[in-house]
Amino acid sequence: MEIETVNGTSAEFSDDLTNRESESFIMLESEICNMVDGIYADTLTDYYGCTVIKFSSGSIIADINLLFDPETNVTDHILQKELEKEINRTGGNLSDGSSVFTVSSYQVMPTNECEMDIDDCSSFATCTDLGSNGFECSCNDGYTDVENYPVGTHCQLAIKTNAPSTTSMKTTTGTTLNQSTLGPQPVDNSIEWEFIVIITSACLLLILLSAIVILMIVRRYTKPSRKRFVSFRNIDQGLRHSSGSNSDETILHDVHFPWHDTPPSLYVYQSAILNEMTESEIMTINQAIDDESNPKTPEEESEANTTRSRSSSAARIHVLLDDLLEYVKGPEVRNDPGLEQDSVSTSA
């Protein structure tokens, strides 16, 4: 469309009209499209609007792209007739409501989407203009169509050698299709390997943590005992109480059982866990042994029994002492040569 005047003034082309972002381009495009909308919007229901492709010199020449529904039956002949009708009615003075444009020449023709670079073919496809029938896209050699996308709009590297497939897309004059700049989309196999590596690493970490926990439990229940024991030894003469310790942390308590029929070489020991027997309890045993060698009167024995019964520890010691004394006095023990030794050691 060639515009000769705008509001009665000669239309002059300026460099600003070559820049789509300039204020002059945007304003003139808006005025011209409003004018064109007034011609087609009321008569053609499939009409969507217009855009200015470019302005060029020669007064002002506007290349306009008319937008229609892709399924429309409107042809370039129908559009030409509607425009001629409006120009004849107004005498060539077309208005957008605020500005008046004098149109000296015009021509309606099918849009060459490929030439105007407004097709939606992939950058790895070839666009072929079909005139009033639109255009078609076909993937280049070595590329194939991506499934579930229109033919030629998305192309990827071909795995197998296939002939390029093509399809025709019917458009009408001025129909605009968005350009697709999507390139090849090869399958990325690295994602599967990354997933396998992550799963394997997680399993190894779980096994390591389980081994550490099991090791800690085993060490806890198999840890060597550090409990200390107490030993009682029979000394051949005199009643005395002394204590010491061996290299294995055994604490020795010497106790003499003053029975005349006990051989001097007989040693009797009884072990008890130190955690269960205090120093005070050991002293109580010594005192009890002393009492056993020095019989008490019935009144003293009753008082001693009352004192022992006041604590569970004393009662337990008393039972232990009775067993120990019976063991020492037993004739089978005194005559057992296997017990004759210089010392007795205890361990945990």
From TrEMBL:
Superkingdom classification of source: Eukaryota
Domain SEA: 1-113
Gene3D superfamilies (alphabetical): Laminin, SEA domain
Keyword Acyltransferase: no
Keyword terms, alphabetized: Cell membrane, Disulfide bond, EGF-like domain, Glycoprotein, Membrane, Repeat, Signal, Transmembrane, Transmembrane helix
One function term, GO molecular function aspect: calcium ion binding
Keyword set includes Thylakoid: no
Pfam families cross-referenced by the UniProt entry: SEA (PF01390)
Localization in the cell: Cell membrane
Chain intervals with Low complexity compositional bias: 304-314
Transmembrane segments annotated in the record for this chain: 195-218
GO cellular component, one term: plasma membrane
Renumbered residue ranges of the record's region Disordered: 288-314
Domain EGF-like stretches: 110-156
Cleaved signal peptide residues: none
PANTHER family the record matches: HEART DEVELOPMENT PROTEIN WITH EGF-LIKE DOMAINS 1 (PTHR24037), MUCIN-2-LIKE (PTHR24037:SF11)
Name of protein: Uncharacterized protein
Organism, as annotated: Strongylocentrotus purpuratus
